[in-house]
Amino acid sequence: MCSARVESRVNLRGNVVSRDMWDWEKGYLYPMSKCVEDGWSAYIVAKKTRYVDWGGGSFWDRDSVFTAEHFEVLPDNPFTLDMKRFIRSDLGRDNQLGDGAALVWLNQPKCWTGVEIRAAGFRGKAMELDAVAPGEKGDVLVIPKAATDLRLSREEFFRVMSDPGLFGKR
Prior knowledge:
Elements: E1 10-11, E2 17-18, E3 22-23, E4 27-28, H1 32-37, H2 39-48, E5 51-55, H3 78-87, H4 90-95, H5 100-106, E6 116-123, E7 126-131, E8 140-144, H6 150-161
Parallel strand pairs: 5-8
Antiparallel strand pairs: 1-2, 3-4, 6-7, 6-8
Helix pairs in contact: 5-6
């Protein structure tokens, strides 16, 4: 996860992200080098919220979770049309919808088969996730990439996103 400064200006188009971090045409504006230097904000989030790290620090490979063809089943509305456009872009193929899909998966335990509890630590400029002894409290729930059933996760995501009740009537 890469956290950056929080500002009051937001772009509500699809996701809530700072305009200083993200542009829908250009992608991330907050460089990855800054994310590494900004580990303090990730540490604060881990300490103050219910933080879930899906993948255990591993990133999904391009097209490993979703391909453009998967999105053809979705109804056409402003939100899904944005998703369909995004997943066809290089950034979308690399990003695999970022944290969005994992929000759906988290609520369906069949999508994940194991978790690890970790303590957030801050060393130098980076947050690190340390193992905790059995029975001890931690700050972060890690769902390892190897404990994710991608087929079931994909099915659950599109089951939820295909529900006509999800999108308001015009």
